[in-house]
Amino acid sequence: MPYRKANDRVLLEHPKAREGSTAEILFFGATVISWRARAKGDPDDLKERLFVSSKAVLDGSKAVRGGIPVVFPCFGAPEHPDHSRLPQHGFARNQVWAFDSVVTDNDDGVSVRLTLQPNSTVAKLYTKDFQLDYVVTLAEHELSTDIHVSNPSASEVLDFHALLHTYIRAPANQVAISPLLGKLYIDKTERSLEARNTLKEEKRGTVDVRTFTDSVYEDAPRRVDVSWPGGGVELKLDGFTTLTIWNPQAEVGSKIGDMEENGWERFVCVEPGYVRGFKQLGPGKTWVGQQTLAVE
Ligand code: TA6
């Protein structure tokens, strides 16, 4: 059976004869906390491809520091009137999602659906009707995470941000991210509010995170290459309009309570989203953001 449900998580295993790729999804936040896979043609052992801080809290008391947290309905500090009582990055990563179903289970891999709907805890913070469906698909060399946002209302428009806060395990000071040349972005490391809200044009052929980096690119590419000497991960995206690149380096990382010592040296966050302006989803409509990670 290529999937096993435990009380707080579901484990996926690719049905290859020898040790196949695996993924682990906490019901808390629908947070993917592990993806182990090998590159095509790589006879070596499976490697963990995501970063989760050794100080991450996994008991549901706070968002997981690592893996792939789901950000909805706001990215960063709330700005929209509907979001005024929400924490940074919204509530989706802090709620227990329900295991809904097995979507596919065949020789190509296994796919499961988790769902989140309004509940009594969320209702204290957020009054709009919504339905989130998260479909996670494990193939031999790829992991897909597709977020479906539906608006059940018959009359109201649903305004939201959505983002997958993907922590890619990588030697941070050696990564090169492309293609972002020519893309417009805001630099959230700027000291003044005015500078933080001023669009810049990316002049670099490849983007690095050797210094504290917190950039939100517009016009997200449909394919992003995150590479380093001897390895890399490709992201294939659909539906997302922005791409955020974050690494706190020691300057900020050393102040993050659940960040392991020097953890910033071992990941780069590459985050497909819809976070510049709010998606305005009409009554009865659904929006889908798709991310497929492939080991290079
Ligand atoms: O990844 C972009 C970002 O918004 C950064 O500004 C930083 O705050 C990061 O998310 C982590 O946020 P968190 O609430 O998980 O500590």
Report strand %. 35-45%
Order of helices and strands: EEEEEEEEHEEEEEEHEEEEEHEE
- What Rg is obtained from the alpha carbons, in whole angstroms? 18 Å
**Ligands in the structure?**
6-O-phosphono-beta-D-tagatofuranose
Largest sheet: 8 strands, antiparallel
**Uncertain spans:** none
Can you tell me the number of structural domains? 1
Mean pLDDT: 96
Number of strands: 21
CATH topology-level fold name = Beta-galactosidase, Chain A, domain 5
State the assembly state of the protein chains: single chain
Would you identify the CATH architecture?
Answer: Distorted Sandwich
Instruction: Tell me the overall shape.
Output: globular
| Number of helices, where a helix is a run of at least 4 consecutive DSSP H or I residues | 3
Alpha carbon gap, first and last residue: 27 Å
* Helix content, binned percent: under 10%
Q: Give the helix/strand class.
A: mainly beta
CATH first level = Mainly Beta
